[in-house]
Specification:
Oligomer: single chain
CATH topology: Rossmann fold
InterPro entries: NAD(P)-bd_dom_sf, SDR_fam
CATH superfamily: NAD(P)-binding Rossmann-like Domain
Family: Belongs to the short-chain dehydrogenases/reductases (SDR) family.
Pfam families: adh_short_C2
Radius of gyration: 17 Å
Helix content: 25-40%
Distance between the termini: 44 Å
Structural class: alpha/beta
Organism: Sphingomonas sabuli
CATH architecture: 3-Layer(aba) Sandwich
Keywords: Oxidoreductase
Length: about 240
C-alpha cells in the first residue's frame, strides 16, 4: 500500500471496530473512525460521526477525510444485530438492517470509488461465519449479511479496473453478544472442530493478509474454527451450555 494513507473504519466506537481503529493507528495509518453522533473516536483516530442508517452517511464520513492522505482502506464493520425470525418477522427491523448492513457499505464503497485516483485500495466488508451454515434466528440480520456477501462480489467485479479490491472477513462468535449469558459464551466460543475460539487477533491476521495480497479480490475469508463442518441448528446463544 502507498505511504500517506487513510483508513475508514465504520462502527469504530466499540468492540471489533474500536480494536481495528487502534491497530491501524498504531501501524501508521491516518484513521477515520465512524462513530454514533455524540460519541468520541478511539485514541489516535479522528471521529466521523454519522448514523449508518441515513442516506447521507457516506457524505458525512468522507467529509472527515478532506485534506487527509488518500483513502486506501475502507472497513465496513458497523452493523445492526437485532432479533426477529419467521413468526416474529419485523418489517421495520428488516428495513433497518438493510439500511445499515447493506446500503451504507454500498454507499461508502461508491464514495471511495468516486474519489479514487491511482494506486491500490481495499474494501473489507465484515460478514458473519453463520452464512456458511445459516439458521433462521436473527432473520433480518442474516439476510442483510447474505446481501452484503453478494454485494462484495459484485463490487469486486465492478471496481477491479480501478485498482480497488473488495473482499470480506466472516468471523464466528468472537465477542459476547447482547443478550448472551457469560456461561453460554464461554461454552460456545470454542465449540468448533478445532476447539479454538475466534479472537480479535484472527481478524487482524486476515486483514494483514488482504492488505498484502494485492491480487486477491472478491473473496470471503471465513474464520470459524471449522464450525461449518458441524453447523448448529440455532444461533449459538440459544444452545445449551
Amino acid at each position: 500500500m502507498d505511504e500517506g494513507r487513510t483508513a475508514i473504519v465504520t462502527g469504530a466506537g466499540k468492540r471489533i471496530g474500536e480494536a481495528l481503529a487502534h491497530r491501524l493507528s498504531g501501524q501508521g495509518w491516518t484513521v477515520i473512525a465512524n462513530v454514533r453522533p455524540g460519541s468520541s473516536a478511539p485514541a489516535g483516530a479522528r471521529a466521523a460521526p454519522a448514523d449508518l442508517g441515513t442516506p447521507d452517511c457516506a457524505e458525512r464520513i468522507f467529509a472527515a477525510c478532506d485534506g487527509l492522505p488518500p483513502v486506501r482502506l475502507l472497513i465496513n464493520n458497523g452493523a445492526r444485530f437485532a432479533w426477529d425470525t419467521l413468526g416474529e418477522f419485523s418489517a421495520a427491523e428488516f428495513d433497518a438492517h438493510m439500511h445499515v448492513n447493506v446500503r451504507a457499505p454500498l454507499l461508502l464503497t461508491e464514495a471511495l470509488a468516486a474519489r479514487h485516483g491511482d494506486g491500490d485500495a481495499l474494501v473489507v466488508n465484515i460478514l458473519d461465519a453463520k452464512l456458511q451454515a445459516p439458521n433462521p434466528d436473527f432473520l433480518s440480520y442474516t439476510v442483510s449479511k447474505q446481501a452484503l456477501a453478494g454485494a462484495t462480489e459484485l463490487a469486486a467485479r465492478a471496481l477491479a479496473g480501478k485498482g480497488i479490491r473488495v473482499n470480506a472477513i466472516a468471523p464466528a462468535l468472537m465477542l459476547r453478544s447482547n443478550g448472551q449469558s457469560e456461561q453460554n459464551y464461554r461454552a460456545m466460543h470454542a465449540a468448533n472442530p478445532l476447539g479454538r475460539g475466534v479472537v480479535v487477533d484472527d481478524i487482524f491476521a486476515a486483514l494483514d493478509y488482504l492488505l498484502a495480497a494485492r491480487s486477491v479480490t472478491g473473496e470471503v475469508l471465513t474464520i470459524d474454527g471449522g464450525q461449518r463442518f458441524a453447523p448448529p441448528q440455532r444461533d449459538v446463544q440459544f444452545l445449551e451450555a
